[in-house]
Design a protein that fits this description.
Structural class: alpha+beta
Strand order of the largest sheet: 5-6-7
Radius of gyration: 17 Å
Bound molecules: zinc ion
Largest sheet: 3 strands, antiparallel
Helix content: 25-40%
Oligomer: single chain
CATH topology: Homing Intron 3 (I-Ppo) Encoded Endonuclease, Chain A
CATH architecture: Alpha-Beta Complex
CATH class: Alpha Beta
Length: about 130
């Protein structure tokens, strides 16, 4: 199980972390009737939030942190899948632990579905494939 160890449970760390979680965002999204929490801290290139421990400098995903602070543990080798598909959302109620394999499969499904609806502009390979077929 992944659980939080000492340094992450220090008051100072928790304080600065929770200051970056907006539990009542101005432009909210919902999943299963629960409001999404917006991450106001740093985000990586993919749009996922992360947090740097104020003293030790260790880095953890912001959604993993809220999940572990609120729900305590993530099974070994599991990712947290965003059920709401909002990458910077950190509400534990919008997250589900899944194996890495399952997470990738879900991501691919979501992506191919999105492309069928609206081919992305950056994906020129897909567009030329479409063009050739016409
Ligand atoms: Zn959400």
């Amino acid at each position: 199980m992944s659980t939080l160890t000492g340094p992450w449970l220090e008051h100072e760390c928790r304080e600065s972390f929770w200051r970056l979680v907006d539990k009542a965002p101005s432009d909210p999204h919902f999943y299963n009737g629960a409001i999404g929490w917006e991450w106001r801290g740093l985000k990586n290139k993919q749009g996922y939030g992360y947090f740097i421990h104020p003293v030790g400098g260790w880095i953890l995903g912001a959604h993993r942190l809220t999940y572990m602070y609120e729900m305590l543990e993530i099974p070994d080798g599991h990712d947290l899948d965003h059920l709401c598909r909002v990458r910077d959302c950190v509400s534990p109620l919008h997250l589900e632990p899944v194996t890495h394999k399952e997470n990738l499969a879900r991501r691919d499904n979501a992506r191919s579905l999105a492309q069928r609806i609206r081919p992305s502009k950056s994906n020129s390979g897909l567009r030329s494939a479409f063009a050739k077929r016409r």
